[in-house]
Amino acid sequence: MVDVDYLVIGGGVAGLSAAVRLAARGTVLVVTKEALAESNTAYAQGGIAVAMGGDEDVALHLEDTLQAGDGLVNRAAARVLVQQGPQRVEELLAWGTGFDRYPQGQGYKAGELMWTREAAHSRSRILHANGDATGREIARSLVERVRSLEQVRLMEWAVTAELLLEGDRVAGALLVDGEGGLRTVAARAVLLASGGAGQVYAETTNPEVATGDGIAMAYRAGAAVSDMEFYQFHPTAFALPGAPRFLLSEALRGEGAWLINARGERFMQRYHPQLELAPRDVVARAITMEGMDGPVYLDMRHARHDLAARFPGISAFLERYSLSLQRDLIPVRPAAHYLMGGVQTDVHGRTSVAGLYAAGEVACTGVHGANRLASNSLLEGLVFGALAAEAMVAEPECPGWHLAADALQRTAAQHGVMTREEHTGRWVAELRQLMWRDAGLLRDRAGLERAQRGLQALEQAQPSGLSRGAIEARNLLEIARLMVAAALAREESRGAHARMDFPDRNAVARHSVQQRGRLWFEAESSD
Ligand code: SIN
Questions:
Q1: What is the CA(197)–ligand 1 centre distance, in A?
Q2: If DSSP states are collapsed to H, E and C, what string results for 143-184?
Q3: What's 512's DSSP letter?
Q4: Which atom of ligand 1 is nearest to the CA of 49?
Q5: Domains defined along the chain, listed by start
Q6: What is the CA(132)–ligand 1 centre distance, in A?
Q7: Any atom of ligand 1 within 6 Å of the Cβ of 249
């Protein structure tokens, strides 16, 4: 048993940004499913969007965020994001994050920060690091900082099985540690910073840890979840048969890459005036439509600058398949990338359950609306992780120890014995295929109802036990059910949610909310 002031579940940018602040006010335990550096944060290539050019720049960043979100963005949350973003990035710079800077002799002052542009941004406001390894560099500097803080204890390779409730407030969590031992943690406030759920789909850019654990656990604990139907598909994941769905950053199009269909035509003019720099949902759908007649390619062969230097990670990956950005057409198609929905929170990460907070991809402040603007997610983690920490320190003292022993007994009895992983693997693969086929990028009632029936059938053979595989499998099922229910209920097409049977957007923008088996819609009400 562990007794701390604050429990942080997840070690990406949101969790670490919170942990740094919480450490000034009490003891903190940061729990991660794998090694600390393995989170969606570390996989973010393109960069971090931030408006560091003064008021006009901030206003434009807000406008771009609202535009991309297709009428559903919570304006108050978006304003907080763009206004507080610059301070948080200055802080990262002070902590030694090495964003790319201009060398001598390129018409810029040597050492000046290097900015790039990405889709649906009206100007160049994306910082990057080591070319295309921005998330990894931000994670490196945050991990270094967190490791230097005495008040922070890290527990890696530990899976959170369930949140522990004392009455109607969250007061800790039950964990399974790396050796398979059960541990209970009592804490006065718990922050979910466990990231997204890309593994719910057969094709994803997300790492294996992204199984929606935080959302599933919060929902079971009685928290409201919102906008679960809005799943963003990144337009350009690598699409060579047998190869992983490696992310080919938005920044490639930001720096001039074209999209080419099987007939060798550049096709985006048929879909959007911003061509390859249209919002991500538009580009993803266009590639899917063009992809029905054969492969779609990224074409950067016309670029004049050194692409291997600007995109070293992507270039090294492509080299394994004897491909080069400078010389070859690169096959691409969309893959599941980012969940706009999640645990419903205010801008301070407060959920509808006392003692429980959420920040980053696991949360839904409404900041992304129906479609996230490229490179806003690292900033989201930094800003809202910090704000959640501010609110958490106001929580009352931890109610006590007795919950731990009770909850341990209850949860262990409920979940029974360990499940064999191979069984879990096949079951999960079926769920992921079903979601990809029937609840993916293009949806309709027939497909979504087929998905619902498929999930009901899978539920009958649901893995039990407290192995990591069994816990993740149950969480994926929970997430899939929430996503399909919301997708069926939303009879319109908006942002990333494309219903073939309801192609138009409704006049009123509403958020879907689900809690304890009920689903309803709430009008977007921010000023
Ligand atoms: C990318 O580099 O394209 C991913 C960045 C993001 O998802 O915002």
A1: 16
A2: HHHHHCCCCEEEECCCEEEEEEEECCEEEEEEEECCCCCEEE
A3: E
A4: 8
A5: 2-230+340-392 (3.50.50.60), 235-335 (3.90.700.10), 415-503 (1.20.58.100)
A6: 10
A7: yes
Q: How many CB atoms lie within 10 A of CB 32?
A: 26
How would you list the strands of the sheet with 231-238, edge to edge? 231-238, 329-339, 296-299, 258-260
Q: Is 250 in the pocket of ligand 1 (CB under 6 A)?
A: yes
Helix 75-94, helix 55-68: angle, nearest 10: 130
Q: Which candidate, 293, 233, 286, places its Cα nearest to that of 435? A: 233
Q: Is the CB of 46 under 6 A from ligand 1?
A: yes
Backbone angles phi, psi at 275, to 5 degrees: 50, -130
Task: State in Å: Cα 70 to ligand 1 middle.
Answer: 18
Residue type, 501: D
pLDDT (average), residues 82-110: 90
Find residue 152's DSSP bridge partners.
28
Verdict on whether the full-model pTM lies above 0.85: yes
pLDDT digit string (tens) for 251-270?
A: 999 999 999 999 999 999 99
Could you give the 3-state DSSP secondary structure of residue 511?
strand
**Does 422 score more than 90 pLDDT?**
no
| The 3-state secondary structure of 213-254, one letter per residue | HHHHHHHHCCCCEECCCCEEEEEEEECCCCCCCCECCHHHHH
Atom of ligand 1 nearest to the CA of 377: 8
Under a CB-based contact definition with an 8 Å cutoff, are residues 239 and 332 in contact?
yes
- 280 carries an active-site annotation: yes
CA of residue 516 relative to chain centroid, distance: 24
**Is 375's C-beta closer than 6 angstroms to any atom of ligand 1?**
yes
Angstrom distance (rounded) from CA 366 to CA 343: 10
Among left, alpha and beta (phi > 0; psi -120 to 50; other), residue 435 is alpha
- Residue whose CA lies nearest to ligand 1 atom number 2: 46
Contacts of 360 (CB under 8 A, 6+ apart): 10, 12, 13, 14, 15, 193, 195, 377, 380, 381, 384, 385
Of 125, 188, 253, 280, the active-site residue reads 280
CA of 455 to the centre of ligand 1 (A): 30
DSSP character at residue 508: S
Question: Secondary structure of the chain: what % helix, strand, coil (to 5)?
Answer: 35, 20, 45
Q: Provide, rounded to the nearest whole percent, the portion of the chain with pLDDT above 70.
A: 94
Tokens of residue 270, six digits: 């048929």
Q: What is the pLDDT of residues 57-95, one digit of tens each?
A: 999 999 999 999 999 999 999 999 999 999 999 999 999
